[in-house]
Specification:
The structure holds two protein chains of two kinds. In chain A, 0% of the residues lie in helices and 49% in strands. Chain A contains no helices and twelve strands. In chain A, the strands form three sheets. In chain A, strands 2, 5, 6, 10, 11 and 12 form a six-stranded mixed sheet that branches. In chain A, strands 3-9-8-7 form a four-stranded antiparallel sheet, with no helix packed on it. Chain A has a two-stranded antiparallel sheet with strand order 1-4. In chain A, β5 and β6 form a beta hairpin. The mean pLDDT of chain A is 92. Chain B is built from no helices and eleven strands. Classes of the chains: A mainly beta, B mainly beta. The interface between A and B is medium-sized, with 28 and 29 residues.
């Protein structure tokens, strides 16, 4: 079945450092890809998405590019802030009309940013 | 304002004692989902409703049931909780369940089983 693998955490960075969180996937066909973020005490919320190969999703300074050839969707940010401290989840939505938007998640990566 | 609301935030139950978790939404979305998230693991889909149509994942244990009495509310019933059912339970919605749609999540209910 479909699966998502994220880099192991936790990740600890200083403010203004460069961030990469790796994500690779296994799926039949061409899924849609997402990054969700969970701030402390809150629910998951969509950070960005990409729906086809070579699409780049971006939001709040974060970017990720859908790479079909490497089956990857790595999350990057050029300069992190303390407020970016959260858990980041990579996810895919199965292709096909009957998937009902079901998401398959990676295990999450905890990011802590120090001043 | 919270759009997907889960109650309670923390729930403690005893081994084998039935427990119900609730979720409500103000978005009028057609699809509602229940995910189980164990510590340091990926959220795992248990089941979802498209309107009144219930769709169970193949590997969801029979111990887990769900009800959706109307568009706004959805309940997760655990008939006989075991220690292995201790987890965060996440409710989510999407408007029509299209593959590119964003899911809206509640803050979750953390279930402890004593």
């Amino acid at each position: 079945g479909d699966s998502v693998t994220q880099m192991e955490g936790p990740v600890t960075l200083s403010e203004e450092a460069f961030l990469t969180i790796n994500c690779t996937y296994t799926a039949t066909g061409y899924p849609s890809l997402f990054w969700y973020v969970q701030y402390p005490g809150e629910g998951l919320q969509l950070l960005l998405k990409a729906t086809k190969a070579d699409d780049k999703g971006s939001n709040k300074g974060f970017e990720a590019t859908y790479r079909k050839e490497t089956t990857s969707f790595h999350l990057e940010k050029g300069s992190v802030q303390v407020s970016d401290s959260a858990v980041y989840f990579c996810a895919l939505s199965e292709p096909g009309g009957t998937s009902y938007g079901k998401l398959t998640f990676g295990q999450g990566t905890i990011l802590t940013v120090h001043p | 304002d919270a759009m997907v609301i889960q109650n309670p935030r923390y729930q403690v139950t005893q081994f084998g004692k039935p427990v119900t978790l609730s979720c409500s939404q103000t978005l009028n979305h057609n699809v509602m989902y229940w995910y189980q998230q164990k510590s340091s693991q990926a959220p795992k889909l248990l089941f979802h409703y498209y309107d009144k149509d219930f769709n169970n994942e193949a590997d969801t244990p029979d111990n887990f049931q769900s009800r959706r009495p109307n568009t706004s509310f959805c309940f997760l019933d655990i008939r006989s909780p075991g220690l292995g059912d201790a987890a965060m339970y996440l409710c989510a919605t999407s408007r029509d369940g299209q593959r590119n749609e964003k899911l809206f999540f509640g803050s979750g209910t953390q279930l402890s089983v004593l």
